[in-house]
């Protein structure tokens, strides 16, 4: 039983996911500190004065429960954008490169699509012979593109 567990844990994709999560958590902490201590003060300063931050007071003045805090929302949006850019450029791009060296394609662009003439669904793979949505038969890919010439002419 322990041998099976060891084999499961030591599979390459499990280890890759675990390392990716650890790196993502560490980067998340770093980026959160950046937004809290650099971006938030800049956004709060944009409001000016002695207000609670960038936003509007919806209720009694000074009540944090009724304060619409746009500064915190903007900070969270900046955090998200920075975090996703870091994950993409420091994890996804190198992973794609390493996998390409191994002969594997990951995060590939979707193949060409065609439209079903019966239900007008636009997300069918070009090689589909039946519609995923209505089940109607699809013309062959070459005939759908209009590139096939009749034989004998």
UniProtKB/TrEMBL annotation:
GO cellular component terms, A-Z: membrane
Pfam assignment, any one: MscL
Primary location: membrane
Chain segments annotated as coiled-coil in the UniProt record: none
Gene Ontology molecular function: mechanosensitive monoatomic ion channel activity
Leader sequence residues: none
Keyword annotations of the record: Membrane, Transmembrane, Transmembrane helix
Entry membrane topology: Multi-pass membrane protein
Transmembrane domains' residue ranges: 12-31, 73-95
InterPro entries: MSC/AndL (IPR037673), MscL_channel (IPR036019)
Cell location: Membrane
Family matches, as SUPFAM superfamilies: Gated mechanosensitive channel (SSF81330)
Domain of life: Bacteria
Annotated PANTHER family: LARGE-CONDUCTANCE MECHANOSENSITIVE CHANNEL, MECHANOSENSITIVE CHANNEL MSCL
Protein name: Mechanosensitive ion channel protein MscL
Provenance organism: Streptomyces klenkii
């Amino acid at each position: 039983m322990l041998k099976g567990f060891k084999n499961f844990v030591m599979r390459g994709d499990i280890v890759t996911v675990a390392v990716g999560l650890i790196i993502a958590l560490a980067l998340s902490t770093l980026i959160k500190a950046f937004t809290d201590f650099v971006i938030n003060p800049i956004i709060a300063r944009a409001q000016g004065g002695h207000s609670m931050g960038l936003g509007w007071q919806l209720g009694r003045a000074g009540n944090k429960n009724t304060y619409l805090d746009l500064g915190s929302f903007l900070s969270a949006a900046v955090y998200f954008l920075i975090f996703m850019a870091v994950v993409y450029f420091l994890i996804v791009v190198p992973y794609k490169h390493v996998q390409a060296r191994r002969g594997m394609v990951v995060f590939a662009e979707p193949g060409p699509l065609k439209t079903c003439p019966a239900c007008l669904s636009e997300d069918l793979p070009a090689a589909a012979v039946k519609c995923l949505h209505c089940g109607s038969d699809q013309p062959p890919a070459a005939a759908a593109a209009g590139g096939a010439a009749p034989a004998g002419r």
